[in-house]
Amino acid sequence: MLDAGECLSTATIEQRGPIPVHLREAASHHLFGCDVCQEVCPFNGKERPPSRLSERNVAHARWGEVSLVDLARLGMAGGGSFAELVEGSPLHRATEEGLARNAALGLAHVEGSEAALAEITSQHPSPVVRDAAEWALARRRR
Fold it and tell me: 96: closest CA among 119, 113, 78, 72?
């Protein structure tokens, strides 16, 4: 039984505000979207060949220089330009706050991210991003 309310793609792209607590661990592994449903869907059949990256699915070169910390700081003074970062991509759908929130959750898995998370927790203007950073920081401390 599939529950569309548990969709990580919806949570990381379309969800406005905080990601529900029960989805945060799973969502913290996905910066933007999720294709797990495609992998487990019984209607896709077993004959389907494994997906291959096409040229249109290769990340823009500018993304090679952007870290999760950079993304989590979007919206902070001195943070990068969201408009420049997402230009020519569908990432604008997540919104600046949503992408920063997702990146903050992802920092739960990055060694040495505690100082950045503490900074984001205390200084980010968005309560949604601060909340995600608090969750990630608590998870790092476990």
Answer: 72
The amino acid occupying position 106 is: G
Burial 116-126 (b: 16+ CB within 10 A, else e): bbeebbeebeb
CA 21 from chain center: how many Å? 15
Domain range for 87: 4-141
- The answer for residues whose C-beta is within 8 angstroms of residue 105's C-beta and 6 or more apart is 19, 24, 27, 28, 132, 135, 136
Number of other residues whose CB lies within 10 A of the CB of residue 29: 14
Distance of CA 58 to the CA centre of its chain: 18
* pLDDT reported for residue 119: 96
pLDDT, one tens digit per residue, over 39-72 is: 776 666 655 555 555 555 566 677 778 899 999 9
- Into how many domains does the chain fold? 1
Q: What predicted TM-score, i.e. pTM, was given to this entire model?
A: 0.84
- Helix, strand, coil: what percent of the chain each, to 5? 60, 0, 40
Contact 97, 17 (CB under 8 A): no
